[in-house]
UniProtKB/TrEMBL annotation:
Required cofactor names: Mg(2+)
Domain of life where this protein originates: Bacteria
UniProt KW keywords: Carbohydrate metabolism, Hydrolase, Magnesium, Metal-binding
Protein name, as recorded: ChbG/HpnK family deacetylase
InterPro entries per record: COD_ChbG_bac (IPR022948), Glyco_hydro/deAcase_b/a-brl (IPR011330), YdjC-like (IPR006879)
Length: 232
C-alpha cells in the first residue's frame, strides 16, 4: 500500500508551520496544503523553500477567514469574510461564478510564490460538496493537478490524488496504530489527513482544534513503517 500523509492548514500559524516541517523532517508527512489566506503564509512559503522535498498543494478556503479577491459580493460579508462555515451543507449553495473567481485567485497567488503545485484540497472538505463538483474538475483540468479524494468525485478517478482518504487521524482517533487501521482499507493508494503543529497561542485563538495537534506531531514523528507500506 502507498500512503501519503498530508498536513492540512500550512500557513495558518507559525506553530502549525513548524509542526508540519518537524513532521516532514523527522516523521512520515510527505505533503502539506497551503491556506493562502492564513496569517502565516509567508513563513510557510519560506519554510517550504528551505525543504524542497516537501510536496505542497493548496488548501482552498471558502469557510474561514477573508477572501483574497477584492471584487466579491455574495460569498463574503461587508468585511470580506466568507459567509460559509464547516456546516456548509446546511447552508445555501454559493454563487458559482464568485466561488470560481475566488478560488482561481487563491491558486494564482499560490503559483506566484514559485512553489510547484502538487494537488488541490480544501478547508472543511468543501471541495467535496456535490454542487461544487464541476468547478473542482475544471480547476483540476486547468491547473493539471489531482484533487483530494471525495465521494462526490469518485466517479472521476483520473482526477483524484489517491483511491481513498483516511480522515479518522483526528481528535480521539489520533493513535500510533494508524497502520493497523489503514491495512483494512481496500485501496492501493491512500491519503491520511493530518494536522501536526506546535499549538501556539495564535492557533488557540483561531482554531477549536489546537492541543491535539501536538499529539499528532509527536505520533507522526515516531511511527514505525511496516514492510507493506510505501510512504509517499
Amino acid at each position: 500500500m502507498e500512503v501519503l500523509f498530508n498536513a492540512d492548514d500550512f500557513g495558518l500559524t507559525k506553530g502549525v508551520n513548524d509542526g508540519i516541517i518537524e513532521a516532514f523532517v523527522n516523521g512520515v508527512v510527505g505533503s502539506a496544503t497551503l491556506m493562502m489566506n492564513g496569517p502565516a503564509v509567508e513563513d510557510a512559503v519560506t519554510a517550504a523553500k528551505r525543504h524542497p522535498g516537501l510536496k505542497v498543494g493548496i488548501h482552498l478556503v471558502l469557510t474561514w477567514g477573508k477572501a483574497l479577491c477584492p471584487d466579491l459580493h455574495s460569498i463574503v460579508d461587508k468585511e470580506g469574510t466568507f459567509r460559509w462555515r464547516s456546516n456548509f451543507r446546511e447552508m445555501n449553495i454559493p454563487d458559482m461564478k464568485e466561488t470560481e473567481k475566488e478560488w482561481r485567485t487563491q491558486l494564482e497567488v499560490f503559483l506566484s510564490t514559485g512553489l510547484p503545485l502538487h494537488h488541490i484540497d480544501s478547508h472543511h472538505h468543501i471541495h467535496g460538496w456535490e454542487p461544487l463538483k464541476e468547478l473542482m474538475l475544471r480547476l483540476a483540468e486547468d491547473y493539471r493537478v489531482p484533487v483530494r479524494f471525495a465521494e462526490s468525485l469518485q466517479t472521476d478517478p483520473d482526477y483524484l490524488l489517491t483511491e481513498a482518504l483516511w480522515t479518522d487521524f483526528y481528535g480521539n482517533g489520533v493513535t500510533s496504530s494508524i497502520f493497523d487501521q489503514l491495512r483494512r482499507i481496500p485501496a492501493g493508494k491512500v491519503e491520511v489527513m493530518t494536522h501536526p503543529a506546535f499549538a501556539d497561542t495564535e492557533l488557540q485563538a483561531i482554531s477549536s482544534y489546537s492541543e491535539p495537534r501536538n499529539l499528532e506531531r509527536e505520533i507522526l514523528c515516531s511511527l514505525e513503517i511496516p514492510y507493506w507500506v510505501t510512504i509517499l
